[in-house]
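Work Package 3 committed the consortium to producing structural models of liganded targets before the mid-term review. Because experimental data for this complex are still outstanding, the team generated a predictive model from sequence and the ligand definition alone, so that downstream docking and mutagenesis planning could proceed in parallel. The input record is reproduced below exactly as it was submitted to the modelling pipeline, together with the SMILES string for zinc ion.
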Amino acid sequence: MSRLIKKILRASFFILTSFSILAAGVPKAAAYTNPITTLRIGLCYEGNGTAMSTLKLTNVVGKGFIFGSFDASRKFVKNAVTGAQGLSSIDLNVKNGVLVVTNPSNNSVIYQAAADAPTIAIMPVDSGTAKSVTGTNWSYKYYGGFEVTALKSGKMQVINVVNIDDYVKGVVPVEMSASWPLEALKAQAMCARNFVVNHIGSHGDFDVCDTDHCQVYAGTTFATANSDAAVDGTAGKYVLYNDKPCTTFFYSSNGGATESSENVWVTALPYLVAKFDDYEQSVDTGKSSWTFTYTAAEITELLKKNGYSIGTVTSITPTYTSVGNILSLTFSDGKTTVTVKKQEAGNILCSSALGKYTYSQRFTITGSSSTRTGLFINSASNPLESIFSTFATGGDGGVSKVAVDSGKISVMTGSGLQTIDSYGSGRTQTGDTFVVNGSGWGHNVGMSQYGAKAMALMGKTYEEIIKYYFSGVTIG
Ligand SMILES: [Zn+2]
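The resulting structure, written out as tokens with the ligand in place, is given here.
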């Protein structure tokens, strides 16, 4: 697949990623000043197969290029080469291990790096009134300069050296639709800025790459006045916990509740805690419900593919978190059991071969021959199996939703006190087929992008959105 096609595919989806989790402390209000405002973004490099054989740079706003190097503080220091100052485009190639810059109109050599200097920095010359923008031969355009390095393979590594806010302008419209409300885009800009400032120098020769491995970045290519305004409107601001930029995870939608970081990954963080989220209900997330059915044989096959040793599955016992997301699944063949937990509990039921995916950890699983148990209300054929979405009539005649936060409810029955779980945690499902019903798309930790959209449409500010999804944070 060509680099351009890969780039377009990457840019077409909201990205769901997970990263290692950092430590945190107690929240206090303070402003934060980022000491590094010039970023190094990996655009083309050997590690992911995108290193370039040929490179064409075109100054589309402004004219010409100058050459030199970036110093330790990431400042461009120009050299004496002037041959590209009047040109709109330059070509780069590696010949005999040396970087060569040529004039595309006549192929004459403008600049040839020294044999022991594999790297050159290139800066477009601005027009005097507007910041220059450079086009590339993969059709993307970028602010800032470039650092090109000849690799042993004969290809080139290309790094974009760019101001942090120009970088964030290249992330926001590919991680969230630029047509969405401004306050939602501002919340996305905050998440993007926090992410990169927590990853300075974390990626070999550069800070972050431009794919969903870090966060998708497409330069100025998809930026609009609306998405740029979101970045300008939050410039220099960070989501802070204990005075430091915190880890602002986000995902497309949660289907009704966020989740605590330790119930999806490993580490508990005080600002990433589970909560019910009713905002998404007012917008179309495209994933408000999904369902599919597995046979016991298919599930057995999935477990074996993932390295588990088990016979044909006859039962599955789910447990749920306090907000009703899956916490674990225990599969049994009648003798042996296999328990998968947290994110793996969702992943284990994904099959690209069968086209069946648990898009989030928010789902239930029901066996075809499970005996329905629970508390019978008025009729022996309608057991109350969980208290999720259950309403009760109080002594004053008022009807209210039964709170599920406590996790359990107890009722005095003719045969004594009986207790049922909020979601049916631990209730074994049996059968030769299993139905999965779920909602949401993503890891559920941190900000819901569709929730942010819904909040913005209701008139909430980006600060309200950020503080809703990240508990106890400040903005400064
Ligand atoms: Zn990366």
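Reviewers should note the following from the model. The radius of gyration is 27 Å. These observations will guide the Year 2 experiments.
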